[in-house]
Amino acid sequence: FAALWSFLKSKAGQHRTWWIASAVLFLLSLLSKEMAITLPLLLFVLSYRPAAPKLTLQQRITMLIPHGFAIVIYMAMRFNALGFVAIRANTANASLLDWISLGFLALGNYLRLTLAPYQLIAYRMIPVRLADRPAESLAALAVIAALAYLAWSLRKRNPDLFLWSLAFPLMLLPVFNFPGITSSFVSERYAYIPSLAIIAIV
Length: 202
Description:
Elements: H1 2-9, H2 16-32, H3 39-46, H4 57-62, H5 65-82, H6 96-115, E1 124-127, H7 134-153, H8 159-171, E2 183-186, H9 195-201
Antiparallel strand pairs: 1-2
Helix pairs in contact: 1-2, 2-5, 3-8, 6-7, 8-9
């Protein structure tokens, strides 16, 4: 949060001290919680706010260079400490549709946990195959589609709402599961950082 605040103070890199401070704080946040790695994506999206300085695409990418260096430093430290740590399991017998629907269901669960955090448990196991969870997946898809349509329809009247709505799933990207596991889980602790988007909207 401090890294985001510092970047906003820098006015997209125009004030160098705040700009560098944002990158340093970003590196510290990575050492604290790896999910912070999505901050550059968030900064890129927020650079399109009406109140933000008008920039070209090249300028928007350039403004994130210090944060890119922070990621390189963090990955070097991570590799030095852990090496290539990867857990491999037998790939589940699942189709592309299964994996896509799993992503929508996970997003729906995180949205629900952020707005109504009840029945909190460490892990919420989700079957990979769509056939094992059709009702839940359709309900999640319907809610996400309705909210996405609402945000899109209001994008001209309230562009900040649209951008923060886009930021929520972007900040969840590190915890969306990919093929290679036989079951998936959702945990409320992964919603801490993305909840910033919901707070901004509210």
